Amino acid sequence: TWVQYSTYFFYPILSGFLPIVIASSFSMLAYRNVRHIVRRQLPIVRRKLDKQITAMVLMRVIAYVCLVSPYNTYRIYAVNFPASRSVPMAYAIGRLLQTILLSINNINFVINFYIFIIFSSRFRRQVKLVLVKKCWQRWKHWCCSMNNRIEPDNNIEARNSQIESEENI
């Protein structure tokens, strides 16, 4: 039953088709909305930001499809035609392929930052503000705060009494 469940429902529907359809439909709705915004009388800045957001959403969906589909396809294949451990070379190749495709699948969770950096100038400005102005200044203050002041030594009498006691010995 696990083979049938994973072959016909889990990997094709829950992991593959359903998220792709939902993401694609919402990205198309966003694209359609931006097309209607162009026709309305809105400030140019707002239209530009809406176009940037739509471009980011569309690229995110494309990246999602490209990064998730190979792993789901391989898993459907591996569940239906498992490699036997008695053939070590085929088993090792299958495990290697699964590891590579799983790594590509996990890139899906990291790639948002890079997609947003590439397609949005506003996001780039915000990242620069946070990294340079806030994080770098805190790190610089924490790591490189040295006291470069010359202070007078107020313990002259304590030294003089120590020198006198050494002379007496």
Gyration radius from CA atoms, angstroms: 31 Å
Distance between the termini: 95 Å
Provide the β-strand percentage band: under 5%
**Which ranges are low-confidence, i.e. pLDDT below 50, for 5 or more consecutive residues?**
none
Which shape, going by the Cα principal axes? flat
Number of helices: 6
The SSE string, one letter per element, is HHHHHH
Secondary-structure class: mainly alpha
Mean pLDDT: 80
- Structurally, the number of domains stands at 2
Q: Could you describe the largest sheet, including whether it forms a barrel?
A: none
Number of strands: 0
Name the helicity range.
Answer: over 70%
Write up what this structure looks like.
The protein is mainly α and 169 residues long. The protein has two domains: 119 residues; 48 residues. It is built from six helices and no strands. The longest helix has 38 residues. Its main location: membrane.
